[in-house]
Amino acid sequence: MDKAGAFPLPSQIGDVPGAENWRSMYPYFTRFQPEDDQRFWFYNSMHFPEPISAFDAITAEVPYTAIGANTARVFAFPTTLGIEHRIVNGRVYITANPVLDPDEIARRNEVFTERAGYYYANWDRLFGEWKDRITDLIEQIESIEVPTLPEFDDAEVVTRARGIAQNHYVRENYHRCIDLFSKMWHHHTEFLMLGYGAYVVFFEFCKQAFPEIPDQTVARMVAGIDVVMYRPDDELKRLAALAVEAGVDDLFVEGCDPAKVLDALGNRGEGGTRWLAALEEAKRPWFNVSTGDGFYHHHRSWNDDLTVPFAALPRYVELARKGELRSRPTEQLKRERERIAAEYRGLLASDEEKAAFDQMLGLCRVVFPYVEDHKFYCEHWFTTQFFDRIRDFGKLLCDQGVLDTAEDIFQLHHSEIDSALADVMLAWSSGGRPLGGDHFKPIVAQRKKMLEALRDWSPPPALGPVPEALNDPAVKMLWGITSETIEAWARADDDDAVSGYAAAPGVVEGVARVLMSVNDIGQVREGEILVCPVTAPSWGPVFGKIAAAVSDIGGTMSHAAIVAREYGMPAVVGTGNATKKIRTGQRVRVDGDRGVVTVLEDGAA
Fold first, then answer.
1. Confidence of residue 477 (pLDDT cuts 50, 70, 90)
2. d(Cα 113, Cα 124) in Å, to the nearest integer?
3. 498: which of 63, 327, 435, 597 fits an S-S bond (Cβ 3.0–4.6 Å)?
4. C-alpha dihedral, 441 to 445 to 447 to 449, nearest 10°
5. One MF term from GO for this chain (predicted)?
6. Please, which residues bridge with residue 531 across strands?
């Protein structure tokens, strides 16, 4: 295969009919440049499976600002700098900037060893302090208020001689939202890359010491974790058990309407009252989980929309009736990881190698929970609150006639919102009217139409020439981008094979259920094989129901891979094209040992 010609160049990507003006939605620095044709880019469908609105572009801009700062400037990872991103036809493509010069790698390694070593040596204490910082940021974003701009300002401005009118706080509080979002992402990546880095070092040691060891066998040595990100699903199981105990379980049936169930519970006496109280207790904080992965404003939390949790409850209620509501096989996985580690440790020849093995494995087990834990605090709890605060500003702009609906604010870039708010502040102070309606309403209407047109575009998995080296730990561990997956993508249209990362061991056969959105998890039947673009924590309830998981994107440390191992089911991730080649109703075999998915019978519905 000619790798250089495997994928189209960025300059060869044409505009989508009906969305020719898509560039107007995004900042100039997100556009491909002529020199970008010489670089390799891959579509980040893990985080951006849909075209992004103008405001949601901030969920690429800010995270890549933070991840690059921590990777390249704060901890000075030896072999990688940061991640650059571009947007084409509403889709986010990224590339990692590697460090290839051996002398530069050695120079950076000295800095990295000292700085990362401090965090590794004090991980538990620093992680505890991190939780305090991130929960403080959450409290701050939740407390932000949008001034109402009444005819006359509050009398306390005079009686307490505050000297600052309410319109000042319109933009100050908006800026606080953006600034807190940026701080959150810096804290998000503060530990994350170190977690990946520790695992990569152990992974590469194992690959060198045991050349035949499968990738997922290395991962199984750090399995058996109990992390915060599983708590929302555990809360659903607790609510299901309570429904049976309280005698209200008959209300939870397939396809039940959350509003009608809640209304009926109010008329079911003490049992219904107990269940409703337990629901309210679970909601904060555990229902602050997004139906996506925290990168789109329209992926609401369970607190905003109970559809996803109520789609999972009927099955959990049924299992609770039978006494079969079990937790993840965590203890079994811990015993298995000790057995595997002991076997491979025994193959090492020297005491020095065994000591190094013990040290690296021990560090991985210490840092690994953060790889999942942070998601609940950052992408879910904080980010859903962040989007809700932006909605509040949207309501202000709507009330002032600048926008037709509060949701329209997400069709504006965050810098455009700044201008719209300045317009409102001026109008309130002068007694005039905001001029933004005439300016922004036609822009919003055009952008909505363009986003609809962009949804039909099928983005290539990668663009540009394939690089000689892929040295970024996140690119490999999270996205699963390696030379092998790139080659699989390149030949995707040439054969019928569906192959990817062997993420979790085992072989099963079953009927495929292809889902493009977590909102459809109610369609999944017991024992089916989930095929999806990528999973997020909100998919948690489905893992107790399926027999195996297959995803288009993901690596050893992706959410689907981690959760599949914790549930003891086979998984193949990073296939690049499973959702295109497999259809619901087909019988498939998932080989989690080899990373291959085979269609056995058609029967697609």
1. low
2. 18
3. 597
4. 180
5. pyruvate, water dikinase activity
6. 514, 550
Q: How many CA atoms lie within 13 A of 566 on its CB side?
A: 20
- CA 45 and chain centroid, separation: 10
Per the DSSP assignment, residues forming a β-bridge with 550 are 531, 572
Of 161-170, 230-239, 424-433, the one with minimum mean pLDDT is: 161-170
Across-strand partners of 462? 42
Domains and CATH numbers, the chain: 3-114+459-474 (no CATH), 490-601 (3.50.30.10)
Highest mean pLDDT among 119-128, 483-492, 544-553: 119-128
Q: Give the closest residue to 193 by CA, choosing from 318, 342, 68, 363.
A: 68
Closest CA to 559 of 375, 325, 416: 375
What is the C-alpha separation between 304 and 540, in angstroms, rounded? 18
| DSSP-assigned states of every residue in 166-229 | HHHHHHHHHHHHHHHHHHHHHHHHHHHHHHHHHHHHHHHHHHHHSTT--HHHHHHTT-----GG
Predicted pLDDT of residue 216: 80
The first and second tokens of residue 432, run together, are 């005039």
- What confidence tens digit (pLDDT) does each residue in 57-111 have? 999 999 999 999 999 999 999 988 999 999 999 999 999 898 989 999 999 999 9
Tokens representing 569 are 């089911």
The residues, ordered by sequence, that sit 6+ positions from 265 with a Cβ below 8 Å of its Cβ are 248, 251, 272, 273, 275, 276
Question: Mean per-residue pLDDT for 24-41?
Answer: 96
How many Å from the N-terminal Cα to the C-terminal Cα in the chain? 35
**Nearest 5°: CA angle at 335, between 331 and 341?**
140
Using alpha carbons, list the distances in angstroms from residue 50 to 165, 248, 295, 455, 553: 41, 39, 10, 7, 14
Which of 442, 451, 413, 445 is CA-nearest to residue 16?
Answer: 451
SS3 for 362? helix
Instruction: Report phi then psi at 501, rounded to 5.
Output: -80, 130
Instruction: Report the SS3 class of residue 64.
Output: helix
427-455 pLDDT tens trace: 999 999 999 999 999 999 999 999 999 99
